[in-house]
Amino acid sequence: MQITMSKHQGLGNDFLVYDIRQGLPFTSGDPDAQWATFVRNWCDRRFGVGADGVLLLGREGTNQLTMVLYNADGSRAEISGNGIRCLVQAAYWQDQHNGAVTYVVNTDAGVRTVDVLEGSPTSNVAHISVGMGVVSDIAEPANWAALQCNPDRPVRHLSLGNPHSVVSVEDVADVNLQTLGELVPHVNLEIVAPGPEAHAITMRVHERGSGITLACGSGACASAVAAKAWGFVPASAPEVLVHMDGGDARVRIDAATSEATLIGPSVFIANVVFDV
User: Fold this and answer.
1) Domains defined along the chain, listed by start
2) Alpha-carbon gap, residue 132 to 221, rounded angstroms
3) Distance between CA 133 and CA 117 in Å, rounded?
4) What is the mean pLDDT of residues 235-241?
5) In degrees to the nearest 10, what's the CA dihedral of 167, 128, 93, 76?
């Protein structure tokens, strides 16, 4: 069977998009287990194509999509703010849209509305806004005490349908994020420092199932909520600019509903064709 996937990146957080209308690349066995094996092979950066995850793109109607996300290690995740932009860009290109259009995407975290603000069938870049849903508090993850955070250090454990732990630090470059992230592998761990601009924060992330990545869209939203609560940015700021290793995202938080909106680019890299 020959398959085609498109590769995209959102601020350096890269994904392979597989249109499930091509059919399944396997004929038997547990689907999650079979996909996990393929995903691990495809995402390997030395022996495969290389990516932080694989997105399964399905269709439910006009501009109505489904998204299933597998992390690089084969585990299934509920949502990805960068990934959903990549998925929508792939659909946008297939549909030959030009200019602004809205998609509704059914994910494991619920339904998300995604607006392509700017794009064309001939441009590799689409600028996209995602309604990421309500940001809510959750319990601290298992083994959290192993991080030995100073009890006076600001910490928030938050969910956007997937779990995040946000930790305030003085300098995001002066932290062994790999070691800390491996202590709490079942949560996305964000370290955050204020600035440098008055309405901005700087963030690094160790993602569940993928390790250190250049950006995390849902993590940017969780970090923006924490930063506003801690006074890192003015409560009146309409947007929080989130600086990450792969680039900058903009986050809006509705003060009344705690709903987050994530705004950033998706960039098409290449189509990949091979036999399975």
Assistant:
1) 2-134+264-275 (3.10.310.10), 136-262 (3.10.310.10)
2) 8
3) 19
4) 93
5) 30
> In the numeric block, which tokens belong to residue 86?
């990549």
Q: Say if CB 99 and CB 120 are below 8 A apart.
A: yes
Return the structure tokens found at 147: 């991080």
- Name residue 26's amino acid: F
State yes or no: cis peptide before 196, omega within 30 of 0.
yes
What is the distance between the alpha carbons of residues 202 and 205, in angstroms, rounded to a whole number? Answer: 10
For residues 189 and 178, what is the distance between their CA atoms, to the nearest angstrom? 10
Largest CA distance in the chain: 57
- Rounded distance between C-alpha atoms, residue 205 and residue 235, angstroms: 24
Buried b / exposed e over 50-59, threshold 16 CB at 10 Å, is ebbbbbbbbe
SS3 assignment, position 144: helix
Q: Are 99 and 84 in contact (CB under 8 A)?
A: no
In eight-state DSSP terms, residue 173 is: G
pLDDT in tens, 78-132: 999 999 999 999 999 999 999 999 999 999 999 999 999 999 988 999 999 999 9
pTM: 0.97
CA distances (Å), origin 196, targets 70, 149, 156, 233 = 34, 24, 21, 10
Q: Which amino acid is at 201?
A: I
Q: How far apart are CA 45 and CA 185, in angstroms?
A: 20
Per DSSP, helices labelled H in the chain are 31-43, 81-94, 177-183, 217-230
